[in-house]
Amino acid sequence: MSEAETTLVLLAMIVVSSLAVKALSNRVPAPLVQILLGIIASLLGLHIGLKPSLFMLVFLPPLLFTDAFRMPLREFSELRSVILFLAFGLVVISTVLCGYAIHWMIPAVSLAVCFTLAAALSPTDTVAVSSLIAGRRVSERLIHILNGEALFNDASGLVCFHFAMIAAMTGEFSYRHAFSSFLLVSFGGLAIGAGLAWIAVRAERILLRRGFDDPLMQVLMIVLLPFGIYLAAETAHASGILAAVAGCMVIKLTGVSDEAATSTRLQASTVLDTVSYVFNALIFLLLGLQLPWLLDAGVELAHEHSAHFWQLSLLVASVYAIMFIIRFCGIWVSIIRRWATARMSHRTFAFPHILEVVLLAFSGVRGAVTLAAVLSLPAIGIDPEAFPERSFVITVATGVIVLSLVMAAIAIPLCIRYLPRDMADKHAQEESLARQRLLQATLQLLHREQSRTEKDRSESLDQADSDHSNEDMRLEVLGRLLQTYENRLSQIDGPTQSPVLTRTTALRRERIELALRLIVLRLQRQTLHALVDARDINDQTEWDIQRELDYEEQVIRSRVQRLPQDI
């Protein structure tokens, strides 16, 4: 099968997985469906290898760039200590403790190989978790912690993996050299990403000032930027992952995207959403395509060592349990540290619900980054056979990936189901507050315009030959607008009026309103098509009106997606 045919087959599988998820009423997360489709396709004879270097270059930069752009800067600043501890501190702790634990369980495997396996298992993948918690009653703080952790722990885990791999192959390891190299790679990546992004922002502003605001050109620049930053950092032997994240953060801080035309932002958002969706789906499809032959390799490995497959399965479960316990304890350490800091500074601190902690622990799902890391073991300049116990590392890592996905799919919905229903939805409160302030500012402006127009009209009445029809028309329009915005304001519950029942009622009312507006849009489209069929209007007229309806529907569906699914 040619590369073009393979690409088309993978894209078709993405469509099939989307239809399957809809048919299952979103009860099964999309990543699990995509992995299952990949397994079925592999058993039917579709074999597509996962090239680690190509995976790191093609998939990670745009996905991390998009995720970083969606990370709220305020929440990142507030939660930076927790995020950085989970992304860096917990990665190192997990690598060391889990490495020693694996070596204790299997002394025949060298400690360096155990560290390599533990380091490969340290990065987490939040895509599967996001599909499980999307639209459900989960605090925004927890979601921001998960997303922030995923931005950085890929880089820290891969750096630890690199040093452990070198130690396993050469038998030489220096903590001082590893620590200094870790800092150099990390801060080098951050500096390169921030510097290149700053240059890109300066160039963008020059182009905007000179009128080069073509939406297609701007969108293409946005898509290419993370790849350029990643390649520049990797060429300089720094972390391309951290460079891509840092570059996006700098772009957000400068606010240059707000200076672009509205059409540019809309098209860029659509393109990035499409790229993110397709690439995430491809990752899990490729993961599923690798599983059958990796499972065969695991069975063969067990036979080579005269062991039963259940013993290998028990080892995988033990490694997963160790990683889970380390993560659970690490989360509590972070919570206690924040409590102690708040107490010393005489600030209030609210302990999270125990189910939130359990949910956060189960959210440590391993994914394609882990698989790409272990598959890259032979892809080095030395003889591939020089790495000891390669089959062992790949088999155990694959088992932990599958087990973590299954456990998350079972445990996370259960945790969400039993979370207290009165948990504050900070994002919903802030959105309500923002809409309230926007409407209040709008009403103030309209009232000022109304007063000014009435004054102009009264002055025109004093002049006998004056035509005041324009003022009358303006007052009529202002009156309609004032009534419209006052009605909208009366429907919004402010943050001070948001007990659970009031908030639930407001959400239900909003859901009904949005559903009715979608019905109206559907009717308008049908009427528009009927006019075309009757040849009362031409295709161009239909296209112009259709675009207006599309933009209106986009706004409505965006609001629908933000509504909780269980209301």
Which of globular, elongated, flat, extended, rod-shaped describes the shape? Answer: globular
Number of domains: 3
CATH architecture of the largest domain: Up-down Bundle
Q: What does the radius of gyration come to?
A: 28 Å
Integer average pLDDT = 81
CA-to-CA gap between the ends? 48 Å
| The level-1 CATH class of the largest domain | Mainly Alpha
Assign the structural class, choosing from mainly alpha, mainly beta, alpha/beta, alpha+beta, or little secondary structure. Answer: mainly alpha
Helix-strand pattern, N to C?
A: HHHHHHHHHHHHHHHHHHHHH
Give me the count of strands: 0
Count of runs of 4 or more consecutive helical residues: 21
User: How is the main sheet built?
Assistant: none
State the helical fraction: over 70%
CATH topology of the largest domain: Na+/H+ antiporter like fold
Question: What percent of residues are in strands?
Answer: under 5%
Low-confidence runs (pLDDT<50, min 5 residues)? Answer: 494-498
